[in-house]
Amino acid sequence: MKFSFESLLNAGGSRLTYGLLNLRILGWILYGFTRPGILVPSQILSQIIRIGVQAIPMASLVSLSVGFILAMQSSTELGKMGADSFIPDLVSLSLMRELGPLLVAIIVVGRSGSAVAAELGTMKVNEEIEALRVMAIDPIRYLVVPRFIALIIMLPCMTIFGNCVGLVGGWAVCTLEMGMPSSFYIMRAMQRPELWDLFSGLIKTAVFAHIIITIACYQGLNVEGGAEGVGRATTSAVVYSILWIIIADTILTGLFYFVL
Amino acid sequence: MSPTPKKTNPSSDVILEVKDLVQSYNGRAVLNGLNFKVRKGETFVIMGGSGCGKTTLLRILIGAQKPTSGSVHLFGEDITKASSQELDRIRLRFGMNFQFGALFQSMTVGENIALPLQEHSQVDPSLIEMIVKMKLELVGLTGFENFKPSELSGGMRKRVGLARALALDPELLFSDEPTSGLDPVMTAVVDQLTLDSTRKIGVTAVVVSHDMTSCFRIATHMLMLGNGPRQGEIIAEGTPDEIRANPDPFLQQFVRGEADGPIAFRLSQDDYLKHLLQEG
Ligand SMILES: Nc1ncnc2c1ncn2[C@@H]1O[C@H](COP(=O)(O)OP(=O)(O)OP(=O)(O)O)[C@@H](O)[C@H]1O
Ligand SMILES: [Mg+2]
After folding, report:
1. Facing residue for A134 by CB, picked from B62, B83, B89
2. In angstroms, what is the span from residue B54 Cα to ligand 2's centroid?
3. Are B115 and B183 within one domain?
4. pTM (2 decimals)?
5. Residues B25 and B161 occupy one common structural domain
């Protein structure tokens, strides 16, 4: 049989397993690049705003707090060894490699993943998904793909932004509390990380975005049984997303540590 | 008008054909071996008591659900065996008005009606806006474009659902209880709309309803599904006159809307006692 994107779009017929969902998203995105009108920029933009931009204040607050915490916690221990000057390094490295991607992802799970699962679940219960199908509009293309692309774009952006805010938190503690000169903090925090430190964090972020949005959409589209089902799907989306994010984080960190 | 050869051949203008359709849930047959045909230009009304499987039947007819067994030929193609792409092609030729509207809650009324046009027609936005206004006028909702479905009454939502189903000017319209929850005037308006679509534009309509006045007003062909002891079978089928003349007591009770008759709403005194004592 000749391979075609079209066969990916409807993989599995009316069943929707997690694997099939992923296949169909991939199919629609590839298909969307060959055919205009499939990926609608205005829809992607509105999702970028709803599931990305609107989560920025919360993500910033958390990143800022983590910046404070990192600087304060490390200053007690590093201070004893007279290694105060390494605090900026520690703050920026931990944020870029690990804490930035992880914490922003967890905020987005709680804020946007749950919202997507609840929204799609309500649409399922309300027969809106059915109505889309009957109008020959594929719900994966119309509902899932814009959200998927939006989060894949936004989560890395939010993570970079969060990292910057976290660095400001560390700076506040170092300069105001420990009397470190600002120029010294900025120099250390910027010089120490290599490009790879940023990239390894961003690779994690892309994987997390994929986990968050596919699990949320999968749970939402598979809701059965009214409002109770929507509640269950939302809880599952949050719990499974966080679980898989942490598992993926462990695997990726191990990979970067041992292999690269 | 000269008679076309097609008209003389009754099988060629069959739009929808259902054969030996069975749908069971957990071993309970809700639809049990249905056979019927809908011809072009008909207003085919499906009647039956609450829970007799009308919505289930409609869902199968539009390909939203695969039946346990049997076949459904829509425009000559068996939709129970069609692939998703084939189904999508067929779906562009009919509209569906859901029992509870199934409107997109996140969109305005106007956007709801515009969606099928945006997705499936190449008309430009200003024209779409005009078509939306026309469809809203048809169902008596001029000026409600910017309302959200949650800001409408149940009957208004139903009418938006009907307007959306008619957005692409389908050849075939499925309508699940389009008039339940509407006041008498709006019932007449919606019935008139169905009549206009079928008589003037030539749309074929398959309408589920248990409002007898409106059934007899619009139907050119009627089908009554049984429930209770006769769950899942066709009790009667025919033109409105045939239905009125049908002596079946089950049917007559339904048509006249009487509480006493073969349609048992409650258990008899003895059965009731037995049922209660068994439980205890
Ligand atoms: N998903 C399902 N699982 C199990 N049983 C179902 C399911 N859907 C419908 N049924 C059963 O099928 C029967 C018919 O339901 P349906 O919704 O088709 O009734 P209806 O004729 O449309 O009734 P109403 O006039 O009240 O809308 C009911 O007895 C219902 O319990
Ligand atoms: Mg029903």
Report:
1. B62
2. 5
3. no
4. 0.87
5. no
Sign of CA dihedral A189, A194, A195, A201: negative
Query: Are B56 and B178 part of one and the same domain?
Result: yes
pLDDT at A2 over 50: no
The pLDDT of residue B1? 43
Asked, for residue B4, whether it belongs to a domain, the answer is no
Strands B28-39 and B14-25 come out as: antiparallel
Determine which of A184-188, B80-84, B126-130 has the lowest per-residue pLDDT on average.
Answer: B80-84
Contacts for B207 with CB less than 8 Å, ≥ 6 apart = B43, B44, B45, B46, B173, B174, B175, B178, B194, B218, B219
Does residue B23 have its Cβ closer than 6 Å to ligand 1? Answer: no
Q: Which helix (H) or strand (E) holds B138?
A: helix B125-138
| Residue where one domain finishes, among candidates B149, B168, B187 | B168
pLDDT digits (tens, 9 = 90+) for B184-196: 888 888 888 888 8
Average pLDDT over residues A69-91: 88
Residues of A in contact with B116 (CB under 8 A): 135, 137
Give the integer Cα–Cα distance in Å for A258 and B196.
74
How many other β-carbons are positioned within 10 Å of the β-carbon of residue B24?
Answer: 14
Q: Whole-angstrom Cα distance, residue A97 to residue A166?
A: 13
Q: Which ligand is nearest to the CA of B228?
A: 1
Q: B180-237, pLDDT tens digit by residue?
A: 888 888 888 888 888 888 888 889 999 998 888 889 999 999 999 988 788 888 988 9
- Nearest protein CA to atom 29 of ligand 1, as residue: B51
Name the closest residue on chain A to residue B88, using Cα atoms: A136
Contact B102 A14 (CB under 8 A): no
> Nearest-5° angle of CA B72, CA B74, CA B80?
40
Domain containing B35 equals 14-93+170-279
**Residue identifier of the C-alpha nearest atom 18 of ligand 1:** B53
Tell me, yes or no, whether B177 and B157 share the same domain.
Answer: no
**Is the Cβ atom of B54 under 6 angstroms away from ligand 1?**
yes
Contact B64 A133 (CB under 8 A): yes
Q: Is residue B179 part of a domain?
A: yes
B7 within domain boundaries: no
Q: How many residues does chain A have?
A: 260
Please return the burial class of A128, using the count of CB atoms within 10 Å of its CB with bins 0-12, 13-18 and 19+: buried
Angle value at C-alpha A217, between B160 and B166, nearest 5 degrees: 20
| Domain-terminating residue out of B124, B153, B168 | B168
Residue of A nearest to B66 (CA): A14
Interface of B with A in 93-152 (CB under 8 A): 96, 98, 100, 102-106, 115-116, 119-120
The total number of structural domains in chain B stands at 2
Q: Pick the atom of ligand 1 nearest to B23's CA.
A: 12
If asked whether residues B80 and B122 sit together in one domain, one would say: no
| Mean of all residue pLDDT scores within chain B | 87
The answer to whether B234 and B34 have CB atoms below 8 angstroms apart is yes
